[in-house]
Amino acid sequence: MAIVVGHLSTAEGSEALGAAVAEARRRGTELVLVTGSPDGASSELDALAERLAGAGVAHRVVPGTGDLADDLVRTAAESGAELIVIGLRRRSPVGKLILGSGAQRILLDAPCPVLAVKP
């Protein structure tokens, strides 16, 4: 079992990572970090790996294909994930009627529960 989270260099991505680390620690399970692209910035990934090691969380990094929604759903299915963690943007009153297309695809296609957090 694992907790799956995507890596994005945004406030939403940072919040999702923090929540995923907390869940992995609480559940005593591995954290699977999916990068946003196949060539994720190695220095940034090294810093993340150091952060995760410092948090005492077993983890591994999976390169993405560029479609983070599909990558998260696929990785969750392949790893038998017990949870996917995603970050959501704050939206205007009109925007609240429509969920982001990536988040919607994850929620509809995920093989496990999805935890959505926002900064």
Automatic annotation (TrEMBL):
It comes from the Bacteria. Residues 44-118 form the UspA domain. InterPro entries: Rossmann-like_a/b/a_fold (IPR014729), Universal_stress_UspA (IPR006015), UspA (IPR006016). Gene3D superfamilies: HUPs (3.40.50.620). Belongs to the universal stress protein A family. This is Universal stress protein. It comes from Isoptericola dokdonensis DS-3. The lineage of its organism: Bacteria, Bacillati, Actinomycetota, Actinomycetes, Micrococcales.
